Amino acid sequence: MKFFYCLGCHDIQALHFEWRRCFCGESSGRYLEDHRTAEYRGRALALGLRNSELTRLTRFMREVRGTAHDSSTEFEMSLFEIPWTSKWVRKVQDAGT
User: Fold this and answer.
1) What are the helix (H) ranges across 1-97?
2) What's the pLDDT score for residue 41?
C-alpha cells in the first residue's frame, strides 16, 4: 500500500486511482492502471506499508482483540520511504491536479 506525505502541510494520504490532494493542495498522488505504480506531484515523500503488516494487523485484531474494542491494546506498524529511483514511483513535475 502506498501513501504520500506532504512536506508543506504534513498531511498523509493513502493513494487511490483518482488523484488525491493533501490538505494544503500542494501535493497529490495516485495509483496507475497497473495497480502497483504510483505517481506524485508537489513536495511529497512517497511512503509504503508492506502488505504483510496489514495481514499482521488483521490477525491481531481477530485473535488478540476479538470483536470488542480494547483501547489498552496497541499495535505498531512501520511505514518506509520509497525512493524516487524506484520503478514503482514516478515524480511528475506538473504542479496541477
Assistant:
1) 51-60
2) 94
